Amino acid sequence: MVAPITQAEIAVPDEPVTVIVSKNGWVRARQGHGIDPAGISYKTGDYPWMVAESRTVWPLVVIDSHGRSYSLKVSDLPGGRGDGAPLNTMLDFQDGGKPAQVLTAAPETRFLVAGSGGYGFVAAIGDMTARNKAGKAFLALDKGERPLPPAPVAGDTVAVLTLGGRLLLFPLSELREMAKGKGLMLIDLAKNDEAVGLAVTGRAPLAVTGAGRGGKASRQVLDVGALKVFYGARARRGQEIPFKLKPSGLESAGGQ
Prior knowledge:
It contains two helices and 18 strands. It is mainly beta. It folds into two domains: 92 residues, no CATH class; 150 residues, DNA gyrase/topoisomerase IV, subunit A, C-terminal (Neuraminidase, 6 Propeller). The strands form five sheets. It has a four-stranded antiparallel beta sheet with strand order 3-1-2-6. The chain is globular and about 55 Å long.
């Protein structure tokens, strides 16, 4: 007698989807890519947090405020054009943890993960996935620290930005690849300073985002030539950025 096929054994088709997570923690998936974010509606008082192109065979990873990681199968996310479902009904956040970072990518995709205390390591999405709703220990944080937005490994150079406006670039080869832990010191922080942004790029400009004069949102680009003065060894203090703003993030500005 042939044993019946269970639901878990049915292969999930590999299809393009767009994962939508709101700032209040509601998650859903829409079929296809190329969706205009402006056409996505949210509950009253809610707004976008992450709108990312994904695939049904990929995981959605959530890192909470304590550095613990949780995951959901993208194929299991609520679909349609409704509001979706709250993450806290699909995951069992531990010890009062709150969703802090969300990301979705193929399991082999590598990211630089770090806390605001300036320590971090490289890990694959597969290292962040958990087997149950209660998640697992992943990024070790000291009291008062928060997890930074993970940076996809898209080159051989790490860039770290601090709230005090210091920037350091160093070779990715100076870091470790780990499945969990605290990692190595990325940048030497001055007293009362903290890391606010990460990037891993090749020979490309970097954009510093933050609050400029009068608290107005600002985005300042450092081209490849301007970045030369920020190169150094891992765990150094870095150099001051050449413009006035309160930094909040760092991203690749593209180009070669």
